TrEMBL record:
It comes from Enterococcus dongliensis. SMART domains: HTH_GNTR, UTRA. The keyword DNA-binding applies. This is GntR family transcriptional regulator, LSA1692 subfamily. GO terms for biological process: negative regulation of DNA-templated transcription.
Length: 243
């Protein structure tokens, strides 16, 4: 009985380590894993233990086995932002059949907003502006960090806890969202974002500057967000529903 527990613990250990390597980018999408023989030698265990670990990862849709060729890291489909028009993160997650959650990092009034923010929102310099920073998670995997800037009109009376759900739903209690214009560029991940998105330092990210507008072309919010480039592709001008 004791020997079975030891074997099970070893199989769990091997499975967890292979999954960790995939998550860290040591084994990348569509890459063939080392042979069962080589993995058994590396982990100092039997090929049966390796086979059980691989079968576990296949059940989790992390690996796929091609008969006669070996085991491969399963290709992860990218999320297409804008596939169904202008959607919030929560709406897009539902469209893909995935579960989303939100961590509100901060919500505060900015004493001296940058000219970039004032100009994007087309506001007078003395208009109170708030910054909302959130981390968005898809199926328990961090996907994006967003910094959103809004005038006091849209957030008056709201607290940090109010932003755990859909921002679009909150905003559309005051105005109808019509469209958004986005500019996307590639950057290299820095320490803070590396930690928040669980992406290795130096890996590419997609930095997206966007302004979202009402029907009368009034800016509603300005957004600087950081997306994992391994999981996202973008359309740049998006409309809400049939506008």
């Amino acid at each position: 009985m004791k020997e079975k527990k030891t074997t099970k613990a070893k199989f769990d250990q091997v499975s967890a380590e292979i999954e960790k390597r995939i998550h860290e980018g040591i084994y990348v999408s569509a890459q063939k894993l080392p042979s069962e023989y080589d993995l058994a030698k590396e982990f100092d265990c039997s090929r049966l233990t390796i086979r059980k670990a691989i079968d576990d990862l296949i059940k989790k849709n992390i690996l796929v086995k091609h008969r006669g060729k070996g085991s491969y890291v399963m290709t992860q489909p990218k999320i297409q932002s804008g596939r169904s028009g202008l959607q919030g993160f929560t709406e897009a997650a539902k469209a893909y059949g995935k579960t989303s959650s939100t961590e509100v990092i901060s919500f505060k009034k900015i004493n001296e907003p940058a000219d970039e923010i004032i100009n994007a929102l087309q506001l007078e310099e003395d208009t109170p502006i708030y910054e909302l920073v959130r981390r968005r998670i898809l199926d328990n995997e961090p996907m994006t960090v967003e910094k959103i800037y809004l005038s006091e009109y849209y957030v008056k009376g709201l607290t940090k806890e109010d932003f755990i759900g859909s921002l679009f739903q909150l905003l559309e209690e005051k105005t109808e969202i019509a469209y958004s214009h986005q500019e996307v560029e590639a950057i290299l991940v820095k320490p803070e974002l590396s930690k928040l998105l669980d992406v290795p330092m130096g890996d590419p990210l997609l930095q997206v500057h966007s302004v979202t507008y009402a029907l009368d072309a009034t800016p509603i919010f300005y957004d600087i967000s950081y997306y994992r480039s391994d999981r996202y592709v973008f359309k740049t001008t998006l409309t809400r529903y049939n506008h």
